[in-house]
Specification:
By secondary structure, the chain is mostly helical. The protein has helices at residues 3-39, 45-77, 79-96, 103-131, 137-161, 170-175, 180-188, 194-206, 218-222, 228-248, 252-260, 267-293, 295-316, 324-335, 338-349, 355-383, 388-396, 401-405.
């Protein structure tokens, strides 16, 4: 693959993740305004927090399903085609949110948006990793992680300039439909992974009467020996930072809205902006930390730091205090080092023929747990009398599980992504 085509792949994959980040950051900024608008006189602050948890859980469930189904699709029909389908899915369903008339309609659409959100990550990461040489992968992995959070940062700045309020929020969903053009572009002109093409050609040669995908059923292969242990480890390592991010740290944004929204409508966007700025830097640096410390030590250190900063944020300050936004930035930086680590580590776990499905399952099955964690956090929020500090600090302790989970993970530092060392699947 020429340098120009390789760069085109990287730009497309990164933009798909940028807009993925826009979708992830949309409801933390807009949720309370949407609920106030659609619920009318029945709205209460506690009910608003409960609906925030439901919207988040619906997105996570959709992303979990989409990551598995569309990651599997990427191994069957190609990374770029599955990527294009994923971008179209989150764009179209997000755009339809501009016309909802009830909370239930929005809830259903957030699940459908999640299908595309989940599908983008495994296909974009696998595509970029396979199109660039091994020596460039830490940089590419950092860019992939940073791109996702750059979308959240960009959205926060738009919302800061044009505040999202109960009287003005539908425009944000119109804006979220724009990336559909990128999805069409991916389907039409973006080149395919040469490693996937080589594996696909090998499968076709072995079966000349058909044109099968490299693996007849990637998910089935991942869920039986010898790859089952690898898959379970990947799921565990992908789940912990996801649960921490959505069941714990994301409460800082509606907390900022609840405290400052009446007097400073743009403060919630400033909060998300401070977090996202730290997250862009953290997710880019995460891969470099993995190279510097080693894959296993880096994950353990990030887990400890994320737990300390999340609990410190919710227990040590409140919105509008001078130290609040700097602590939000610090938590965003450390808590998202995981998301530079994961794009480097997860592709190293899986062979080429099941790489998109494997990374999709590892990253997105955690979203099932995340959805459950978010709903539990929503119930805790209600039981604790609507206390954002208590629910955020309690849920932030989940990061400590990473110190234990990494003990079961293999060290992949010296692995390459070439298809030749792929392990042979066991016979049924």
């Amino acid at each position: 693959m020429t340098g120009g085509r390789r760069l085109g792949v990287l730009v497309t994959a990164a933009l798909a993740l940028v807009f993925d980040g826009v979708e992830l950051g949309l409801m933390p900024v807009a949720s309370l305004s949407v609920s106030k608008s659609l619920l009318g006189a029945s709205y209460t602050p506690t009910l608003g927090g409960d609906w925030f948890a439901r919207f988040t859980a619906a997105l996570m469930l959709g992303a979990a399903v989409g990551g598995i189904v569309l990651g599997n699709l990427g191994d069957r029909i190609g990374r770029t085609r599955a990527l294009g389908v994923s971008v179209l899915a989150y764009s179209v369903f997000a755009g339809l949110g501009a016309w909802v008339r009830s909370q239930e309609e929005m809830l259903a659409l957030r699940f459908l948006v999640g299908l595309g959100v989940g599908g983008v990550w495994p296909n974009a990461v696998a595509l970029a990793a396979e199109c660039w040489p091994d020596k460039s992968r830490p940089l590419v992995a950092g860019l992939m992680g940073a791109a996702l959070n750059a979308g959240i940062l960009g959205l926060s700045q738009v919302a800061r300039l044009w505040p999202v309020t109960p009287d003005s929020w539908r425009w944000l969903f119109h804006l979220a439909a724009v990336p559909a053009a990128l999805g069409l572009l991916a389907l039409r002109i973006v080149p395919e992974s040469p490693l996937w093409l080589a594996q696909h050609a090998k499968g076709s040669t072995a079966n000349p009467d058909s044109t099968p995908a490299p693996t007849a059923n990637p998910v089935r292969e991942l869920l039986r020996p010898p790859l089952l242990h690898t898959t379970l480890v990947g799921i565990l390592l992908g789940s912990i930072p996801m649960i921490g991010a959505w069941a714990a740290s994301k409460w800082m944004i509606p907390w900022a809205d609840a405290v400052a929204g009446a007097t400073t409508p743009g403060y919630k966007a400033s909060t998300q902006g401070a977090w996202a700025f730290g997250a862009v830097l953290g997710s880019f640096v995460g891969a470099q930390v993995a190279v510097l410390l080693g894959r296993r030590r880096a994950y353990a250190a990030i887990s400890l730091g994320a737990a300390a900063l999340t609990v410190g944020l919710f227990r040590g300050t409140v919105p509008l205090r001078p130290e609040f936004l700097p602590l939000v930035f610090a938590q965003g930086f450390v808590g998202t080092l995981f998301f530079g680590w994961l794009p480097l580590y997860l592709p190293e776990l899986f062979p080429t023929r099941v790489r998109a499905a494997g990374t999709g399952i590892a990253y997105n099955v955690g979203r099932f747990a995340t959805a459950g964690g978010v709903l539990l956090a929503g119930s805790l929020f209600t039981l604790l009398g609507g206390s954002y500090p208590q629910v955020g600090s309690l849920c932030g302790l989940v990061y400590l599980l990473g110190v234990v989970a990494i003990l079961w993970a293999p060290d992949t530092t010296d692995r390459t992504l070439a298809p030749t060392p792929d392990p042979k699947p066991s016979r049924p």
